[in-house]
Design a protein that fits this description.
Blueprint (H helix, E strand, L loop, with lengths): L1 E4 L14 H13 L5 E4 L12 H8 L2 H7 L4 E4 L3 H9 L4 E4 L8 H6 L4 E5 L17 H19 L6 E4 L8 H9 L1 H5 L6 E2 L5 H7 L7 H13 L4 E2 L4 H15 L1
Parallel strand pairs: 1-2, 2-3, 3-4, 4-5, 5-6, 7-8
The structure holds 6-hydroxymethylpterin-diphosphate.
6-hydroxymethylpterin-diphosphate binds next to strand 1 and strand 5.
Length: 256
């Protein structure tokens, strides 16, 4: 999954794709490099990101989403807002990627009444407070129980099993130790029976470990993606598609 943020303030690619033609070109490049789906976001969810109104979020997306869809590019919409999900589904996207696990009022209904895939992600708190001393008795148990419950609610609402993806939400209300623990034990999340999506690309936990700034976290991101796939991840959400794809090609060659 290649990341495309149409925002002024995303932590890695903020401000780079506000121009529609640059955004479309970036999506095409990522597809050429081996991405299977492009995850388009109009609101940053980095720690302390300011909230964005529905109007502003849709204004950022409205010219990009239909063009990507009309080009036949598989698109995922990265949003927490029911209205944006509904509009994106009407415009033909293939997936709803919600860091709020469809908790916004009406979001589950939008998913259920569509045929799109959904990614249910765990987070503790919201961008404005999620990194203020997050605390867990057992992070894997808590994340796993939450994802199982949200998946169950989705199934009951009418989202078919084959449309559900789960994500432990690296960096969303987790310390470095919580993130490492989750990555170490990722295999256990696959036992819930849904494909697992992992987003570690360029995140601050990689910076904490390597001391590198965002732009210099490509090697660490590739290593993290490779580890995640070895531990059972079905989808990796990344900024650096070519580097990740090359690493996964080697992994596949060795493991087949
Ligand atoms: N991480 C981010 C955004 N969306 N979706 C899923 N399913 N999993 C993730 O880990 C995830 C996500 C944050 O990364 P990014 O989009 O690069 O930055 P920003 O939130 O600043 O736009």
């Amino acid at each position: 999954m290649g990341i495309l943020n149409i925002t002024p303030d995303s932590f890695s690619d903020g401000g780079r794709y506000l121009d529609t033609s640059l955004a479309i070109a970036r999506a095409k490049t990522m597809l050429d490099e081996g991405a299977d789906i492009i995850d388009v976001g109009g609101e940053s969810t980095r720690p302390n990101a300011p909230a964005v109104s529905e109007n502003e979020e849709w204004k950022r997306l409205v010219s990009v989403l239909p063009q990507l869809v009309s080009l036949g590019i598989p698109v995922s919409i990265d949003t927490r807002k029911t209205t944006i999900m509904r509009l994106a589904v009407e415009h033909g996207v293939d997936m709803i990627n919600d860091v709020g696990a469809l908790e916004d009022a009406g979001a589950m209904d939008v998913a259920a009444s569509s045929k799109v895939a959904v990614c249910l992600m765990h987070k503790k708190g919201n961008p404005d407070n999620m990194q203020h001393n997050p605390d867990y008795a057992n992070v894997l148990d808590e994340v796993s129980t939450y994802l199982e419950r949200r998946a169950h609610i989705a199934l009951q609402a009418g989202v078919s099993r084959d449309r559900i993806v789960i994500d432990p939400g690296f960096g969303f209300g987790k310390t470095l130790d919580h993130n490492l623990d989750l990555l170490k034990k990722l295999r256990q999340l696959t036992l819930l029976g849904f494909p697992v999506l992992v987003g570690l690309s360029r995140k601050s936990m990689l910076g904490m470990l390597t001391g590198e700034i965002v732009e210099n976290r490509i090697h660490a991101s590739v290593a993290a993606a490779l580890l995640a796939v070895q531990k059972g991840a079905a989808i990796v959400r990344v900024h650096d598609v070519k580097a990740t794809k090359d690493a996964l090609t080697i992994l596949t060659a060795v493991e087949q």
